[in-house]
Amino acid sequence: MTKFELLRAEAKQRIDEKQGTTLVCVGVATCSMASGALKVKDAFISEIQRKELDARVMEVGCMGHCYAEPLVLIKKPGFPALLYGKLDEDLVERLVEDFLANDDPCFDFALAAIEPNDSFPTLADFPRGFYEEKLILEQCGFINPEDIDHYLAVEGYRGLVGALDKSSAAVIEEVKSARLRGRGGAGFPAGVKWEKCSQQDDKEKYVVCNADEGDPGAFMDRAILESNPHLVLEGMAICGYAVGASKGYIYVRAEYPKATSRLRIAISQAKEKGLLGKNILGSDFSFDIEIFEGSGAFVCGEGTALINSMAGNMGIPETRPPRMAVSGLYGKPTVLNNVKTFAYVPGIVKNGAHWFRQKGTEQNPGTAVFALVGKIKNSGLVEVPMGTTLRRLIYDVGEGIPNDKKFKAVQIGGPSGGCLPEDALDIPIDFDSLHDAGAIMGSGGIVVLDENDCMVTVARYFLEFTQHESCGKCTFCRLGTKHMLDILTAITQGKGSLSDLDLLLELAEDVRDGSLCNLGGTAPNPVLTTLRYFRDEYEAHLEEGRCPARMCKDLIAYYIVPQKCSKLCSACVGSCPTEAIYTREDGIKAITQDKCVKCDNCLKACPPEYDAVEKLSPPVLPGEKGSEKK
Amino acid sequence: MNLLEGEREEILNSVDEILTSSEINRRNLIPILQSIQERLGYLPRPALEKVADAMGMAAVDVYGVATFYNQFRFHPPGEHQIKVCMGTACYIVGGQIAMDSFARRLNISEGETTPDRKYGLERVACVGCCTMAPVVVVDEQMEGSVTPTRVDGILLSLEANGNGEKPGEEE
């Protein structure tokens, strides 16, 4: 038996010893923690103890079904493994009593079963499960990210073993033939990068994993690191072997403490088992991984800025070439890939390039992982084959827009992406196709916007972000984005004229062409796409002082319709944080406009049966109409 | 913000300890600054000067690196640190409203700390909890779906158990 088989046998045995008892897997990742997963976990533990049941509670990562957090998977012998969502302490008590202590699986609260069975539908029976194909998220939420045995039991590190059996050239060939393209957003062929690095005649080389996921609205990398850190470590080790590097770094974002702590645990466990460190599994190959914590600068997602930051400098991008593969970290040949890119590698080596090419399209094989958020019912983390259309992603996988609202746009690719209208929904998503529509795939953040979202505000938001995050090296990026932001801010306040739109377009081109790195190069995208597809909204702001989506604070007013106000309820009065709402002599509520901070509370507080609060845009109250006219 | 009594000594001692236990080279500058902030909660001026001295760098260079990154704070944090997420998802469903509400209740602007150092308010780019938007992180505890009413609830629960305990759920 080889060293690896021995490790695997041990791991399996350790896990098998615990078979036969009921297992409660609580999904604990950052977003589930936000929705109370730790409380649910504690409740399970204390209930099980109180009832002296033979059951274990285990932490797992993110399953991707964020809309139903906190999630729990219960595996009880004799029953199909069942997934329960939206749990709280009361439901936990009920599940422990009815299911764990007795044999009623409480199907009412169950979301889905995991494997096909006769009693309950599985995830694959829902549109979402049907369209999803998981290559790198497969184990996320099902294995314990803090226990390497779980990863070994699901064939983990077999890719690394397979790689060590081959020549490094053969490994690179496999990755090249899989046509794996960099998942950080640029889509550069990973194999080509690796080959270039492997050809460099230098003893010291580095493998760097870019986990500086800075796009607002994106959390794919975080979820993978929190749910299956070993997958990324394995991918990095394979890359190290292929290019001849013995040192790897993971550049993790400062805002991801859970991912960092789980990575630290994973690294130390892998070292303990001899899967990282000196002479891995008895071979000549040695590889170590260290964590470098970023400090919160968006521009550090850019390669040259990232390595500058690791050297203790400001994270300012530099001109290329030389390419990173020739002269990267500390001036040495370096492979820099995104978390997801590394995550695909073990599967490719283990199952062959063919396995990867089977999914997706000819030029864009494999799958894409998206963070589906915004105005969408089934928000969460999804993995679909490349070439899936946006419509399928939003309406089938995500089940469409909540509250019967109308779809307005989809923002794809973070601040460097664009906003696409309904017409663009049939575009298949891959690295090349979105480009023509003015957007990019980027790292995979998808924000769905509905009729209540103002496109000018959205464009302004992204520009504010890029303007703030600009490192300041290039004049166009530093000052151009500032100027654009000022114009957009004025438009959201109803100030300015139509000629400002031409100036915006002109500035956008200059910023794009005059910037060194992609932060500036793509910063105008949200403005360009919103101007292209939603020009009428800009015009409404400028010409009519009206925000069609009723979002821009300066262009709206809250108004209580006297005919609809119930007189008897005071929900709005109680909810107002500034005491702007008062009761008129006739009992009807009204708003003192000067005091109103437009926080939306009264609108939410007004019981739906009255529906008396309205947002008016332009902000002219009925009865004042005549007096407002100049 | 002025240093409190005895704070300067504490700062210098902490920095001393961190510097003796780390390798002094440029590659380590950011990790050293991170350790200092972890210990002290922010990067006070005397600390930056001391690091510059030890590294053989001009203080302005250390300051330049530190201010480049969003993570570093130059104000002492509040006893309760409130971080309002301004990611896309949070922004479009009212992140700014949550920020305004905290600013109004605490009477400070983002990036500031109340004079009694009880509350600090900051803006973060995205904490990656987009499905719970708008999100606020209070003392490392995530609070999802934050409305002005919840803002009041969060602050009340912090007042109620002011010993740094986690804020309780309010209805």
UniProtKB/TrEMBL annotation, chain A:
SUPFAM superfamilies: 4Fe-4S ferredoxins, Nqo1 FMN-binding domain-like, Nqo1 middle domain-like, Nqo1C-terminal domain-like, Thioredoxin-like
Key word Metal-binding present: yes
EC number: 1.6.99.5
UniProt entry keywords in alphabetical sequence: 4Fe-4S, Iron, Iron-sulfur, Metal-binding, Oxidoreductase
Keyword Membrane: no
The 4Fe-4S ferredoxin-type domain, residue ranges: 556-586, 587-619
EC category name: oxidoreductase
Molecular function terms from GO: 4 iron, 4 sulfur cluster binding; metal ion binding; oxidoreductase activity
Membership in a protein family: Belongs to the complex I 51 kDa subunit family.
Name the record gives this protein: NADH dehydrogenase (Quinone)
Native organism: Dethiobacter alkaliphilus AHT 1
UniProtKB/TrEMBL annotation, chain B:
Cofactor(s) of this protein: [2Fe-2S] cluster
SUPFAM superfamilies the UniProt entry points to: Thioredoxin-like
Source organism per UniProt: Dethiobacter alkaliphilus AHT 1
Residues that, per the record, bind [2Fe-2S] cluster: C85, C90, C126, C130
Signal peptide (from-to): none
Lineage top rank: taxon: Bacteria
InterPro entries: NADP_DH_HndA-like (IPR028431), NuoE-like (IPR002023), NuoE_dom (IPR042128), NuoE_N (IPR041921), Thioredoxin-like_sf (IPR036249)
Keyword Iron-sulfur: yes
GO molecular function list: 2 iron, 2 sulfur cluster binding; metal ion binding; oxidoreductase activity
PANTHER family (alphabetical): BIFURCATING [FEFE] HYDROGENASE GAMMA SUBUNIT (PTHR43342:SF1), NADH-QUINONE OXIDOREDUCTASE, E SUBUNIT (PTHR43342)
Protein family according to the UniProt entry: Belongs to the complex I 24 kDa subunit family.
Entry protein name: NADH dehydrogenase (Ubiquinone) 24 kDa subunit
Pfam families linked to this entry: 2Fe-2S_thioredx
Alphabetized UniProt keyword annotations: 2Fe-2S, Iron, Iron-sulfur, Metal-binding, Ubiquinone
Keyword Transport: no
Cofactor remark: Binds 1 [2Fe-2S] cluster.
NCBIfam families from the UniProt entry: PRK07539.1-2
